[in-house]
Amino acid sequence: MTTHQFQPHHYHTTIGSHPPVLRIHPGDSVMTSTVDARGADSSGQPITAPGNPMTGPFYVDGAEPGDTLVVHLDKLRPNRPFGWTRTMVAPNVVDPEQVPRLPWPEEGKELANWRVDNDAGTATLVAPQTRLGALTLPLAPMSGCFGVAPARGEAISTATSGPHGGNMDYRGFVEGVTVYLPVFVPGALFHIGDGHALQGDGEIVGTGIEISFDVSFSVDVQKSRRIFWPRGENEDYIFAAGNARPLDQATQHATTEMIRWLEQELELDPVGAHILMGQTVEYDIGNIYDPAYTMICKLPKAVLP
Amino acid sequence: MTTHQFQPHHYHTTIGSHPPVLRIHPGDSVMTSTVDARGADSSGQPITAPGNPMTGPFYVDGAEPGDTLVVHLDKLRPNRPFGWTRTMVAPNVVDPEQVPRLPWPEEGKELANWRVDNDAGTATLVAPQTRLGALTLPLAPMSGCFGVAPARGEAISTATSGPHGGNMDYRGFVEGVTVYLPVFVPGALFHIGDGHALQGDGEIVGTGIEISFDVSFSVDVQKSRRIFWPRGENEDYIFAAGNARPLDQATQHATTEMIRWLEQELELDPVGAHILMGQTVEYDIGNIYDPAYTMICKLPKAVLP
Amino acid sequence: MTTHQFQPHHYHTTIGSHPPVLRIHPGDSVMTSTVDARGADSSGQPITAPGNPMTGPFYVDGAEPGDTLVVHLDKLRPNRPFGWTRTMVAPNVVDPEQVPRLPWPEEGKELANWRVDNDAGTATLVAPQTRLGALTLPLAPMSGCFGVAPARGEAISTATSGPHGGNMDYRGFVEGVTVYLPVFVPGALFHIGDGHALQGDGEIVGTGIEISFDVSFSVDVQKSRRIFWPRGENEDYIFAAGNARPLDQATQHATTEMIRWLEQELELDPVGAHILMGQTVEYDIGNIYDPAYTMICKLPKAVLP
Amino acid sequence: MTTHQFQPHHYHTTIGSHPPVLRIHPGDSVMTSTVDARGADSSGQPITAPGNPMTGPFYVDGAEPGDTLVVHLDKLRPNRPFGWTRTMVAPNVVDPEQVPRLPWPEEGKELANWRVDNDAGTATLVAPQTRLGALTLPLAPMSGCFGVAPARGEAISTATSGPHGGNMDYRGFVEGVTVYLPVFVPGALFHIGDGHALQGDGEIVGTGIEISFDVSFSVDVQKSRRIFWPRGENEDYIFAAGNARPLDQATQHATTEMIRWLEQELELDPVGAHILMGQTVEYDIGNIYDPAYTMICKLPKAVLP
Description:
Chain A has two helices and 21 strands. Chain A is mostly beta strands and 305 residues long.
């Protein structure tokens, strides 16, 4: 049960079987940091190439293909007083014939700046000047991108997502959540980054409030628990993520994973599982901006047997 | 400002330019009833053909193409002590290769029965016997299907949805909500039915707890307010519905309609509107079972200027 | 075996249970005409409202729900020397971020004009002036839209398509083809219109070369042959149409219909049917412009047992 | 202008920045071989892990990011007398509710065997026994999977496709075709494999007739010609591939790439390019089985200025 302090020296813009930066054991915790989506650290300086650079990967001893990696998100906190967002809803989420009427920014004016007050727990729009004025929103820090090395030697861009996790941009991946990831390679090789001070559903402007983070997480390994898609758990819900395009297919993945969970692990009979899901299931949208979209299928713990 | 008592004598399984059953004025209210999705009334007797039979249509004086019909849902209440659901998650929302493993019911055993206690505000599973036992859930009555006659003489099945509304199965269409619908024909021709005592997101078993309703609504007309998709408003949110397949396209419709609302009616500048949506938008899933799926794009009123 | 001369006096922009204009018998032929997509006749005069106006419907004696209507397309010929197309590829078939770069036409300049030489069998671009000059293409006349009244009283816009047929815009619906349509209402109620002098796959500018037609067709009824989607047959192929969005779902409908045809009517064993389809199936794109897209699944007759 | 004989010793099931097996120059040719999709060579022996193992990668001197790699497919020939296919149409291409009725094979009986007569140019079904008997089809050898190393260090499974090429399974990638691929890394790193003796459109059973190949290709580099998706050319057509799900998005990619080709390289004015595409474009389906589907947008050379 060691707590590791880890200072990253390089970053990856793919999630893959990169050489591990640290070898840890089930039960261990890691305190580290992440840069923002453009590679800028807590001082705002770009220290690595942009594109959701990941801290890691962390090798978890004993994790083997077919196991499940448990990651408890102990701490996800912005570590600087400013962040940025894009300013235009992405063309892929509006009607095609409306795309020319979007407020296409001039070159060099694609970003909005936000002041982040971590003590007050707020983010305030600083620029550009709009009728929103100094719009102030409550912080809701989350990790937009994390995951484990995928199968068969793939190295997958942190611009997208899959069964291994990746750029899901789900608002529910906050401090306190327990994440479950399928293990595809020895050691699992956990990566994390892409902190958002807050974000709307779908990440429809292509960003949350992008910011560097102080991150702590602890890990565990569930031997021979085979899952197919990222799962999670908070105080009130269990949930499963599906990552694909179109959203219909992401929905199929997430729903199927939840059915598996109910039938195979929570010991509901199939008819019971289906009746329960029909009347109590909830869906959340993760990202609808990236090559693969993310759908979350969740159930209130209160209705589980 | 008349309150009409209307006892339906026949029902429609399309939404279209049917002869109106009642002519009402802006400001008027209607107290009426709806049968369940199979055409059974408050006694449980089937009194009309199945398939989401609609009560109406109601002709609203003064409503013309290009206007917006306002419908305030004053009362949506189950009026009998029993309802029914299907028992299997629909094949279209699970991974294709998993479809053979679904609990396909024997013929005649497709339905589950629920006892509905309107005083206690609960629904309790009666049959079949599963590990859920007498699962009891809080009522959350909603209308699964309502709308106005579509343009160009179309008559659209109440199994699906479109710009005119229809079978959206959104959990947010509850008592107290104000709905806005585009008017395509003189009098608008409002239809309503398909009451659910409660429902999970997506209506993924193809039903909520289907039940007959006592319904009251009041109407108004906003002259020359042109909207393109159904909208709504409750105490906390404004929202817009998009109806299409795949969900990606439903999302495009709903998002575009919300952008219009912000820019054209709430007087946000485009850049302000987009920045605001990026960080505060929320999406809810309506139905993901019918030919057209439903996506809801919503914004908290608290963040609106 | 009567040949009816029918001169239309009014047209419909929905396909539905409209009063029949003529009652015919199995074996009969009809010689009639169709207006172009904007309602202009052989003189170029608009004589009815635009939007793919249909000639018909024709009531076929003896056709009952559950039967199949057979329509042999005996003649499909442009009957005037000019047609028109739109000039811009539709936003829905290009990458969303490229939509602003499309050559959006000024108002009033949305159309290109073509001279149609029915004797020479060619169409020649007349305006606008482009580097194409007087581009000349061979005629390949086809009907973009035809179908039968849908089930449950629906009246469906001729802008879209479904199991009843409708606006499929498939280049393969040419003179000489035999079409099979599921019958949903007594008399089937056949509608036809939307002639194209020629068209590219997908109708990606939203039109073929739109033109009025002289049309002849003969009908038959196959009692108790139940099909689910439009089918067709020419000298070399049998084919089935699926109409839906996304194309993936249209593909599912068309493929499933072809499997039914092989297994239920052509008496292939399921494994044989699937092996055959795997290595010999071909797909054609119908329209990818309308609310519902069209996919054609076809098999060479040469490989059928 | 060297012709290299290359005997592969190992294979890759991702397309990525693997160490090159051979360094060649523009103008050079390579004569080599490929194993079948399960890793079996010309003797039928499995010599490497299954999953579309690739021969290569080949480093092409002078190819830099932003250039285009030209690959002329000089020879694509089965080099053994037997191949195999799967026997069931994939669940993702049939209607979801029909999936349980598919002829799901018993374990160990998923494959059909074909005799391949390279002299006669035919493939004949050997097993299983079906009403097809000894179905004999003409050979039409094609490469199902080839491509170049993707950008940003990705290594992408040969089960899928993208801008880099990959598992497109397009029947048009036959001997004699010239392929154009965007270069993302120095040397381009060309991989090739997955030979099919023949295949139906869409690869809907998940395979063509899978077989090992003798392959020859020659390469060239077009400096500073920037393309975004794989392109090709044969005697009659130019074509562009789009790879994505749903097919709608693959269609958008392919269509956009063709517009670029016409406007930027073939010097058509935009209005001319769009009018031409509208009336002469053709679409072919590549694979509709893999995670990313493939759509081909093509134009007859005869209509190009």
